[in-house]
């Protein structure tokens, strides 16, 4: 029996979407759904929830929970990664509170920035252990990474561990529908093309019947910027200044650039409606709501599921049936975007069929967009270098090259901040020299 393994299965809500989709997919009915998590209670919760969906849907998939990661992976055809190393307490708190002492504020801190760097540094050793197990027990597995920081972790598994990896993010799927809805435009029949890097990919084309829709998009966006505050002010501002709409949300993009979160210009926070400390706020809400959500998901024997927009089950279906499916995937560049570094991880359209993931060639991005992408790629590549070499100086380099961090702090303060974060993380990080 073929296996789909879910690493981090204690992410019960996300497991419902991704694995619930698999349970409803006809081409996957002969698969075992293998669950692994280091939290035994959350693992049991997800197992119970999925068995409830299995019963109500009539799925023939087998569901099995494992406490041994290697056994969960053994013989797997597909693996899904959705872990978070360090959780809200202590690591997310550390990522936000220590930088605050230096006057460095963040919104999400899961991609680049000082928080993204340290989330990478504590996650990569776990990915390394995954790769070691994969080489031993399922060397041909397709590894689907949903874990942030997406670009670095996908890059690391592909380039440094040699694992067949694609990274999946929601931002590409929802980019155009959300944009058109917010501007009161009809997305039906719109032709689009999106490429760049994760959380900073660009809507390069939006047209209908050969007519470029960008002039109308920008006209409506400019009008909306002048009206009441809204949730997409940063992205609209970037589009109006750089010419193209970016895939990921305004709260994310506020901290990817040096223009928006600035101590000396506190009025920008108000002007662009930037939610500082947004991710810790969400974490607290999720923790507070879990008791109610647990009863709805785990305690409901009549729990049903409808197939979601998550890519994973559609990828598996395309590979099992050889019916092509298009995704936005994170893969090694290798010349796909010709004015970004070959060794970068890029987000591009990919076709999926029985032969696997086939990324599409993009060519040059508009030069200003490639330049913005490279500012984040610099930090990504230096973070990987730090993780591989265990050299502390490369952590400093990654932080000094981060656009937001460099705009706010001196080089000496950046070094001091990194040292404080290394000390605060303690055993969550390997030793750096």
Structural description of this entry:
The protein is α/β, with parallel strands linked by helices. 50% of the residues lie in helices and 15% in strands. It is built from 17 helices and 13 strands. It has helices at 12-23, 40-57, 69-73, 87-101, 113-137, 150-160, 171-183, 214-226, 233-242, 250-253, 267-271, 278-297, 312-321, 367-389, 392-401, 403-408, 411-425, and strands at 3-7, 32-36, 62-66, 78-81, 142-145, 165-167, 191-197, 200-208, 211-212, 245-246, 325-332, 345-353, 356-359. It has a six-stranded parallel beta sheet with strand order 3-2-1-4-5-6, with helices on both faces. Strands 7, 8, 9 and 10 form a four-stranded antiparallel beta sheet that branches. Strand 1, helix 1 (12-23) and strand 2 (32-36) form a beta-alpha-beta unit. Helix 4 (87-101) runs antiparallel to helix 5, helix 8 (214-226) packs across helix 9 and helix 15 (392-401) crosses helix 17.
């Amino acid at each position: 029996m073929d296996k789909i393994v879910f690493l981090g299965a204690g992410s019960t809500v996300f497991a419902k979407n991704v694995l619930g989709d698999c349970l409803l997919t006809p081409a996957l009915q002969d698969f075992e759904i293998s669950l692994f998590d280091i939290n035994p209670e959350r693992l049991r919760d997800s197992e119970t929830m999925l068995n409830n969906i299995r019963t109500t849907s009539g799925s023939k998939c087998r569901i099995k929970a494992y406490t041994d990661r290697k056994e969960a992976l053994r013989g797997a055809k597909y693996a899904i990664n959705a872990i978070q190393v360090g959780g809200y307490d202590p690591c997310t708190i550390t990522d936000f509170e220590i930088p605050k002492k230096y006057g460095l504020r963040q919104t999400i801190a899961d991609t680049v920035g000082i928080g993204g760097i340290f989330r990478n540094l504590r996650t990569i050793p776990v990915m390394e252990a995954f790769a070691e197990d994969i080489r031993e027990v399922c060397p041909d597995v397709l590894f689907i990474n949903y874990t942030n920081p997406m670009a670095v972790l996908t890059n690391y598994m592909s380039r440094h561990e040699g694992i067949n990896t694609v990274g999946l993010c929601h931002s590409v799927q929802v980019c155009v529908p959300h944009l058109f809805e917010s501007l009161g435009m009809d997305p039906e029949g719109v032709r689009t093309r999106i490429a760049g890097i994760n959380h900073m990919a660009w809507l390069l084309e939006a047209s209908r019947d050969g007519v470029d829709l960008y002039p109308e998009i920008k006209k409506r966006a400019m009008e909306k910027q002048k009206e009441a505050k809204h949730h997409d002010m940063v992205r609209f501002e970037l589009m109006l200044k750089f010419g193209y709409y970016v895939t990921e949300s305004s709260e994310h993009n506020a901290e990817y650039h040096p223009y928006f979160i600035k101590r000396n210009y506190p009025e920008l926070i108000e002007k662009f409606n930037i939610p500082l400390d947004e991710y810790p706020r969400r974490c607290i809400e999720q923790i507070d709501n879990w008791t109610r959500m647990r009863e709805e998901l785990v305690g409901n024997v009549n729990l049903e599921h409808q197939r979601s927009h998550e890519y994973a089950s559609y990828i598996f279906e395309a590979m099992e049936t050889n019916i092509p499916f298009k995704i936005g995937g994170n893969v090694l560049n290798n010349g796909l975007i010709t004015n970004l570094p070959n060794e970068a991880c890029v987000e591009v359209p990919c076709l999926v069929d029985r032969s696997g993931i086939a990324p599409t060639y993009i060519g040059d991005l508009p030069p200003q967009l490639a330049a913005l992408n490279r500012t984040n790629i610099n930090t990504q590549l230096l973070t990987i270098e730090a993780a591989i070499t265990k050299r502390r100086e490369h952590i400093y380099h990654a932080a000094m090259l981060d656009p937001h961090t460099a705009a706010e702090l001196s080089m000496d303060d950046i070094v001091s901040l990194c040292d404080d974060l290394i000390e605060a993380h303690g055993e969550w990080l390997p030793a750096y020299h």
